[in-house]
Amino acid sequence: MAHPKVIANWKMNGSLSKIHHWLYEFQSKVDPNSKTESIFCPPTCYLSFAKNIISENRIGIYLGAQDLDFDRDFSLTGGINASMLKDIGCDFIILGHSERRSYFFEDDSILLQKLNSAVEKNLKIIFCVGETKEEKNIGVSKEIIRTQLSILKKIPSNLLLLAYEPLWAIGTGEVPHPEYIQEMHETIKDELKSLNDSEIDSPVLYGGSVNEDNAPDIIKIISVDGLLVGGASLDADNFSKIVNKITG
Ligand code: PGA
């Protein structure tokens, strides 16, 4: 794969000083010409701060947000929309993460509006899909994934990255068998092609308990185009090792 992508999804973690140190350490440990594209997704309140450090020091990392609010026809206290994220220098947005689906009740109708807002502002979308352990055990993983993907019809493929994140692998230390990852990634790629009636292969990233030890083996799986890293991304040394190991 030409340019694997690695995403640091910080979730609700961090502080000004942690972000400051993390970005400088990342810069000192990762070759700025690395063929791997890294994307840093801190909490929204730190995005501008991170952007300033990245720009002033020309650090080779993109900036992504973990959520957005779609525009509504009423006022919305606390809302942050796609144009604001674009305005402060975000290139990417994570949508459909299982934690937001479950704790914030983000269903398909909400996600579709968020997707459309992102497309309108040209934000690249990292769209997460994944099944629960129960769904896997009763053999319906592929049906679940296809249903989650159905709202991506009409989303331009040049703005789309997929992240396959089985819920039972997130933060558990349990990583699926390589053949299972391969099968699920192929399912995602095929489904997207048929949804959009296109031959374009959208990048599909794997996420769920990725760390510096398992990253090299996961990236070797043929249809894995990158990694979405949660817990192991909080430490700059760990994250840099993942980036450097998959760059080869
Ligand atoms: P994890 O999280 O790497 O801590 O399992 C991944 C994610 O939820 O994006």
Structural write-up:
The structure is a single chain. The protein is α/β, with parallel strands linked by helices. It has one domain (5-245): TIM Barrel. The chain is built from ten helices and eight strands. The chain has helices at 16-29, 47-56, 82-87, 98-103, 108-120, 133-137, 141-149, 178-195, 215-220, 236-247, and strands at residues 5-9, 37-41, 62-65, 92-95, 124-129, 160-164, 204-207, 226-229. It has an eight-stranded parallel β-barrel, surrounded by five helices. Strand 3, helix 3 (82-87) and strand 4 form a beta-alpha-beta unit. It is globular and about 50 Å long. The N and C termini lie close together (12 Å). The model has no long low-confidence stretch (mean pLDDT 96). It binds 2-phosphoglycolic acid. 2-phosphoglycolic acid binds at residues 9, 165, 170-171, 207-210, 228-232.
The percent range for helix content is 25-40%
Number of helices: 10
Q: In whole angstroms, how far apart are the ends?
A: 12 Å
What is the radius of gyration computed over CA atoms, rounded to a whole number of angstroms?
Answer: 17 Å
Bound molecules: 2-phosphoglycolic acid
CATH homologous superfamily caption: Aldolase class I
Number of domains: 1
Unreliable residue stretches: none
- Order of strands, widest sheet: 1-2-3-4-5-6-7-8
CATH architecture: Alpha-Beta Barrel
Provide the CATH topology. TIM Barrel
Shape: globular
Average pLDDT figure: 96
Class of secondary structure makeup: alpha/beta
